[in-house]
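Protein: Serotonin N-acetyltransferase
Species: Acanthaster planci
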Amino acid sequence: MALSNVCIRPVTEKEVHDAWLIESLSFSSEEGASEETCKFRQRVAPELFWGYFENDRLIAITHGTKTSLSKLTRESMFTHDPEGTVVGVHSLCTHPEHRKKGVAKALMQQFIQYVRDDLVNITKICLVSHDFLVPFYEGLGYKCEGLSQVTFGPDPWYDMVHNLPTDSRPWISRWTQAANQHSSPATDGLKLVPLTRHAQLPNIMLSPATAHLPRVLCQHVKINTPTTVCVSRCRHNEWVASAIRLRHNSME
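Structure follows.
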């Protein structure tokens, strides 16, 4: 049997319709988000709209927005505060054909890790759950804080909160300092800084680059300025040889 090719990543604008189809198969019309709501959330907070892909097919989704409220309200599910310190998760669902396989758990674990390690100033992740799913979310680190004021459909919802430690990203200063202590003729003048706001960095066309940076733990490498390399953590702490020598045409 061939092994499945699994990828967990943000959902693109073109994939929102497929995401909504999974949503519509998982919730009643009273509880589930409309396709327009899904489009809104992906548009205003694309970094919080994630999917689990198996062999390039989307089979599970989770999405949310930011808020400044300590708990979710019905209104907060249809708004987005870019400066909010709380991530509200509004959906986690799997296509019926792929349930009971640990897919939703894996997706939420990756989502929590991303929020904890890569987003700035986030203090907690909040969601609402039906009572029969409370143990599932508790197994992922959420705590039940009682009956929620949110109402969708006839059944009650419960507030679930995942508090994040304020010092959850010590790797930023540690890795940056270690990498910047390494110097070679090819890297003189370059500064390594943490990449913590992926979605807010401008799209920059990269010219051909040669590389002699030290091996660093990283997932994404992007150029922020002509002399700055931005690096963020690798998902599974794999050693990646990242070698970036910025050589723009004007410098050659």
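Remarks: The two ends are 51 Å apart (CA to CA).
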